[in-house]
Design brief:
Two copies of one chain form a homodimer. With 201 residues, the first copy, chain A, is mainly α. Chain A folds into two domains: 51 residues, Arc Repressor Mutant, subunit A, CATH 1.10.10.60; 144 residues, Tetracycline Repressor, domain 2, CATH 1.10.357.10. Chain A has nine helices and no strands. Chain A binds a DNA duplex (30 and 30 nucleotides) through loops.
Chain lengths: 201, 201
DNA sequence: TAAGTTACAAACTATGGTTGTTGTAAGTTA
DNA sequence: TAACTTACAACAACCATAGTTTGTAACTTA
């Protein structure tokens, strides 16, 4: 019965695509639902069948990106036969690069993400707990491989997370765009890993 | 010949005091030079004899606070006969608490400071290099006391600084006001110190 | 009945004129 | 002549209102 001939999932995807295009074009705080709808060839009211309100549509853009990050990090976690601490470095580097790349060549999208950083949106929470679960997993592996020592992997992951904040937090990533921070990232991570390789409980 | 009967330094200090009061009262972005001048019993134009422009006056407020921090941290560095790593913990805790206290009970002043965080004002640069010099000093002491090992104290201080960013950066401090972060701060610092106690060059 | 429309009210934003603030130049006083 | 004032121009904040955009309800179609 849809006159567009598309399923709900398809039109949702297209709506998000059009929103991304509008953000890039006009800036994220100047996106108009009426323009997005025009792109899809429907009336603006039709968008409300798929998204609760404008915020939900904008959120969907960030959510898509966060899920992409989750997945590329998950791919690293799943890799077999690699040193757990090397995987952890790869994980941290990938996260750092993802944020850096975003702010560099998609600043308008990054802005919307940046504003979200302190927001208590459920999908941001979800993203955070996915990341923490992955990191805890890597810590457990490292403990199993005798590369780390300690009784509380959750706490160890939290320590690593906080210590690496300088390389992940939106504001801080944006602040150091012109510098090559990867060698420093490596050094910070290595010093923490060495410390956590001794007894830490 | 001054009709106020005050020296330049005195009136400068009073102007900063009045600006602080105005910020607390009205919010930092609503400070009016005319009100500040009224407090001092002079015309607003008189302020231009002591401050280049409004920005310079607002900056003076932040600068005063940054210098206070520099001094209280310096007091820690100067303390004799204490373990260097304990001093470093005290230093990090004091910096963390200073920022936390500011945002808690002087949010309007903190806001102005927060905006400055990425700004390239010379007195902010000055503050940063003072802090780094202090931290390098603590690292050198710790190396001398065989608590740390490594050939490059500057790099080690940088590592420690970046690793502790989560507890010092204005945005991050403001984001975790409701939590007790000191135990975590301690754990992050300890793990880095342990790592840096092994060979790191 | 899910996917859409049109039509309309409420909320927001852009505009332009008015008022208030900032910054400067020329003048005043101890 | 340093510390200040008054007077004024340039600029920014404020406020009313006209114009858009957002969100909803009642209606249409495959």
């Amino acid at each position: 019965m849809p006159r567009t001939g598309l399923t709900a999932a398809e039109i949702k995807k297209k709506a998000i695509d059009a929103t991304v295009a509008a953000m890039r074009e006009e800036g994220f705080d100047k996106v108009r639902l009426t323009d997005v709808a025009k792109q899809l060839g429907v009336s603006h009211a039709a968008l409300y069948l798929h998204f609760k309100d404008k915020t939900a549509l904008l959120d969907a853009v960030s959510e898509r990106w966060l899920v992409e990050i989750d997945e590329s990090l998950d791919a690293i976690c799943r890799k077999q036969g690699k040193e757990p601490t090397e995987k952890m470095l790869a994980w941290m580097l990938t996260l750092h690069r993802a944020k850096r790349a975003k702010v560099l060549h998609d600043p308008e999208l990054y802005k919307s993400f940046d504003l979200l950083a302190n927001a208590q949106k459920p999908y941001v929470q979800q993203h955070m707990s996915t990341l923490m679960a992955q990191l805890v997993g890597l810590v457990r592996e490292a403990i199993a491989a005798r590369r780390l020592r300690g009784a509380d992997p959750d706490k160890m992951a939290e320590i690593l997370w906080e210590g690496m904040m300088a390389f992940h937090h939106p504001k801080l990533v944006a602040q150091h765009l012109d510098e090559k921070r990867e060698p420093l990232l490596r050094l910070v991570l290595e010093s923490m890993l060495k410390g956590l390789a001794l007894k830490t409980d």
